[in-house]
Write the structure tokens for this entry.
Amino acid sequence: MRPKLSAWDRELFLRVATREWPAAEPVLPRLSRAANHGALWFGVAAGIAVVGGRQGRRAALRGVGSLALASAVVNTVGKGAVRRARPVLDSVPVIRRLSRQPGSTSFPSGHAASAVAFAAGVAVESPRWGAVVAPLAWSVAFSRVYTGVHYPSDVLAGMTLGAGAALAVRGLVPTGRDLAVPPTPQADAPALPGGRGLYAVVNEVSGPPPLLGMPADRLRAALPEAVVEECSEDDDLAEMLEKAARQAAEAGGALGVHGGDGSVRLAAEIALRHRVPLMVSPGGTYNHFAMDLAIETIDDAARAVEAGTAISADVARITPLDGDGGADRPSLFLNTFSIGVYPDLVRYRERWSRRVGSWPAGILAAIHVLRTSSPLDVDINGRRHSVWMLFAGNGAYRSLGPAPVRRRDLADGQLDVRIVPGSPYARTRLLAAAVTGSTTALLRRVRLGGIGPGTRFAADGEVAPAPGGLVVDKVNEALTVYRPM
């Protein structure tokens, strides 16, 4: 730690230690102990869930999820990144000291991270409950300096990480307020009463097990005139979508897909080739494209199809470059392209998700990647860079850490390119970027070269081997897709 910052840190610690705080001595040490292992916050979450109704339950769940992510990052990565010793307690009155002193390193404060993560997570879902919890979270954070177990900078770093964890959870699981309908150009698409003329494929392999009945049955109930086929593990999804698109083109109707972002990406390619509108029904784990269309349920998609309301959306292309500078056939993506550590995170998450569930698998994968991966050397528009990751989003995204999260406009003609530099202090920089963001540019085209053998890229959650060089660019307003108005 730099000398000036260290001196400021110790001076502020001594000021807190030597000052009298009326009524704090019987409260703050007990509060600090109550927050051990998150016990205080689990109790608060239970209370909010009981008395807060549906919104309270959502707020409590989001707070606990944010706390879990913050705790995982602090205890597995943060504590090891800066091995700082705990403060010396000579100046701290004995009555304030904890009966059991923590044995872990001092930076950052896990208690502060958990407190702010929980409070911010609750506030994201319910500002009213967030205002109730915030003073308690602040008191727990301050108690770590008051009792002498952390320097002020430990607490500030923990609070920053906690806020970042809550924002990351919000990005992965948006609230209803985040799903505002984007102002995208309207497009002509046929209204299909009862779904007549819609040929849809339901990917039964996508996403978690359904909670409200089989998706194919629910889609048939919502659109009884539609032709709905089910794709199991033994079927070829691409082949079934090709057949459905041909039938839709002959009938003057539309292609439908129920599945995750990978299934939607494949359906979009086929719909473009057959020049038919696309209906998207969310059936995956995250459903980023469907969420940006403000489609949360099968009924949302059905309502748009029956009304004939649609938009023109951009698609982005990945074009591999051969050794002579020529280009092979491009592939499309609707959400994001990434190269670096993120494809490894996706790969490990998918491998573990069926054993432990999507959220725990995502946290475990992030921890594993942070501890074992290295930055990637790659040419970006002709210049060599070392990067932890590079994202290219199909459209400008709301800024939230290194990864794009939500879009307002699906037809802005831009690529949202975000880079997390790889060195120096590579893991510390990646950890900081998860909270503060990354280098960002809005471009129409980005060219990557000098990609080493064995490198992988991810596009809309699907991982594939990366060629030695590639170009990512845009096709503006190419896809006609139904969206409720």
